[in-house]
Amino acid sequence: MSATILLVEDDRLVLHMLTTGLHTAGFGVQAADSAEMAMQLCAGKRPDIALLDMNLPGMSGIDFAEWLKIENCIPFLFLSAYSDEKTVKAAAELGALGYLVKPLDVSQILPSIHTALKRAEEIRKRHQAEINLNTALKTSRCISMAIGLLMQRFET
């Protein structure tokens, strides 16, 4: 099964071109022209990764990426016309797996998407391992408390 990409781009021409190119490359694509529409798509089928424009109507790409990260743990890359240091730094600090500067075509995006998908899988595995360790730690604490209570009960 191929990866599903959430593509959020307010320029409909770019959105169509990228959607077509990503489909041709074998990806499933959930296309949205606004953050609001993208949020609705995320509520349906969770994408494997998101490719976001920086300048979206109603919500900045940074704000939407933060929502993706906090609410859904969906990894993301930025695709933007902005290449100033402040914007790129903000994206990196938020945890973007990549930052691509427009204009570009699908063949230029694909290597970054493949790399980001591999990195996202590593992050998911690490996150799952953390959840498993926390669960084991809680279980161990409960067992230790139960043993302590039993020992206390049988000592008296």
Word description of this protein:
The protein is 61% helix and 14% strand. The chain has helices at residues 12-24, 35-44, 61-72, 85-94, 106-155, and strands spanning 4-8, 28-32, 49-52, 76-80, 99-101. The chain is built from five helices and five strands. The N and C termini lie far apart (61 Å). The model has no long low-confidence stretch (mean pLDDT 89). The relative contact order is 0.12. By secondary structure, the chain is of the alpha/beta class. It has one domain: Response regulator (Rossmann fold). The protein has a five-stranded parallel sheet, with helices on both faces.
Q: Please tell me what the overall shape is.
A: elongated
Overall mean pLDDT: 89
CATH class: Alpha Beta
In terms of per-residue confidence, which ranges show pLDDT below 50 for 5 or more consecutive residues?
Answer: none
How can the largest sheet be summarized? 5 strands, parallel
> Which strands sit side by side, in order, in the main sheet?
2-1-3-4-5
First and last CA, distance? 61 Å
* SSE run: EHEHEHEHEH
CATH topology assignment: Rossmann fold
If helices are DSSP runs of H or I spanning 4 or more residues, what is the number of helices? 5
Q: Strand pairing plus helix content: what structural class? A: alpha/beta
Structural domain count:
1
Mind telling me the CATH superfamily name?
Response regulator
Q: What fraction of residues sit in β-strands?
A: 5-15%
Helical coverage, percent range = 55-70%
